Amino acid sequence: MMLKQKPWICAAALAAGAVLIFFVEWLGGLLMVTGGISPGSNAPLVEPG
After folding, report:
1. 48: which residues sit within 8 A by CB, 6+ positions away?
2. Which alpha helices (H) appear in 1-49, and where do they start and end?
3. pLDDT tens by residue, 1-49
4. Is the dihedral of CA 3, 4, 9, 11 positive or negative?
5. Gap between the Cα atoms of 28 and 37, Å rounded
């Protein structure tokens, strides 16, 4: 049972990680554009706009 569920859990973890990284980078870019301070990333890869 566990062996069959492992790929699904792995895929879900990868998807969640990608979404989290994208959200953090987007939020950091938004804060930088608006003049705020983003402690997690001082050089975001994605800037909205």
Report:
1. 26, 29, 30, 33
2. 2-33
3. 555 678 888 899 999 999 999 999 888 887 766 665 545 555 555 555 5
4. positive
5. 8
Q: Name the token pair of 6.
A: 């492992």
pTM summary value: 0.45
The tokens for 32 are 């930088």
pLDDT score for 7:
85
Structure token pair of residue 17: 């990680």
30 exposed, middle or buried (CB, 10 Å; 0-12, 13-18, 19+)? middle
SS3 34: coil
